[in-house]
Design brief:
With about 325 residues, this protein is of the alpha/beta class. About 35% of the residues lie in helices and about 20% in strands. The chain has 2 domains: about 120 residues, Rossmann fold, CATH 3.40.50; about 180 residues, Dihydrodipicolinate Reductase, domain 2, CATH 3.30.360. The strands form 2 sheets. Strands 7, 8, 9, 10, 11, 12, 13 and 14 form an 8-stranded mixed β-sheet that branches. Strands 2-1-3-4-6-5 form a 6-stranded parallel β-sheet, sandwiched between helices.
Length: about 325
């Protein structure tokens, strides 16, 4: 049985390098590589894109769209790590745990769009609650997040690691305040929300990778909208039921009431893994539930998810 051939178009970028690092030691695939001097040679790229079983696109959006048009071989399957195709009809969203049967849809698909890092956490928290009717689709959601500076791409990585003073580098930097962040459409569509959430992302120059996302819910508002009597236990159960048995998504035990003074959350615990760690905190007195998602923005938020999707698509262990 021949080994499936994989070509990473854009292997020199942040995500491409991470995927390459994870794939090049595997013995169950054949990795097609482009000569570094021919990375901008459209003819050579086209040859490799049509010679592989799976093309993994680690490119800017416009370049990813162009790459898809270059594929003429109907047998070639595509896994796109860019934002370009995440909400388009005909493309399968590459979050295998999205629903109970979603991995089978990825396995059958010829065009899969890898999720964004922030959306992985937001959707992972919200989709089970929307499906369960605990969070009505019409609910106004606000999500906040902090990421390591690797999420900003090559330019920001260079600035943060140069040591030189710069107005884009600081221990905490808030951005996306205008609500035009490129991840908002997929957050809305794949969470099942009727309107875009308010999203306030940030990054820190003090750590390279890691991501923590937070969503706060007021139970009285949710219950008034849904006609239910949901509480922190119901929220936690909906998440635990959805991800029961999943290898990479883990729902931690419910935490109710006052936390010990030493209890803190950081974005770092899931670094170098493909894990998505979800938590539910409840304060019954104030009727508030806090949801958190912790993941590696370069792992489950990018390259780890790509490897997981590639394995599903090609039937690899």
């Amino acid at each position: 049985m021949p080994k499936p051939k994989i070509f990473i178009d854009g292997e020199s970028g942040t995500t491409g390098l991470e995927i390459l690092k994870k794939m090049e030691s595997r013995t169950d695939i054949e990795l097609l590589r482009i000569d570094p001097e021919k990375r901008k040679d459209a003819r050579e790229r086209s040859r490799l894109l049509n010679a592989c079983d799976l093309a993994v696109l680690c490119l800017p959006d416009d370049a990813a769209r162009e790459a898809v048009t270059m594929i003429e071989n109907p047998a070639v399957r595509v896994l796109d790590a860019s934002t370009a195709h995440r909400t388009l009809e005909g493309w399968t969203y590459g979050f295998p745990e999205l629903t109970k049967d979603h991995a089978s849809k990825i396995k059958a698909s010829k065009r899969v769009a890898n999720p964004g890092c922030y959306p992985t956490g937001v959707i992972g928290l919200l989709r089970p609650l929307v499906d369960a009717g605990i969070v009505p689709a019409s609910t106004g959601i606000t999500a906040t997040a902090i990421s390591g500076y690797s999420g900003g791409g090559k330019e920001l990585i260079g600035l943060c690691e140069s040591g030189a003073p710069h107005d884009r580098v600081g221990p905490f930097c808030l951005y996306g305040i205008d609500q035009n962040h490129k991840h908002l459409p997929e957050m809305q569509v794949h969470s099942g929300l009727a309107k875009s959430p308010i999203f306030l992302p940030s990054y820190s120059s003090t750590f390279y990778r890691g991501m923590l996302i937070t969503i706060a819910l007021r139970l009285d508002e949710l219950n008034a909208q849904s006609g239910k009597a949901a509480n922190a236990e119901a929220v936690h159960k909906a998440l635990a039921d959805r991800y029961e048995g999943q290898k990479y998504v883990k729902v931690e035990p419910l935490r109710l009431g006052k936390l010990e003074k030493t209890y803190i959350l950081t974005p770092l615990p899931q670094n170098e893994t493909n894990n998505l760690q979800l938590r539910v905190f409840g304060n019954e007195e104030k009727g508030v539930v806090i949801l958190t998602a912790c993941l590696d923005n370069l792992g489950k938020g990018a390259s780890g998810a790509a490897i997981q999707n590639a394995e599903i698509m090609l039937g690899l262990a």
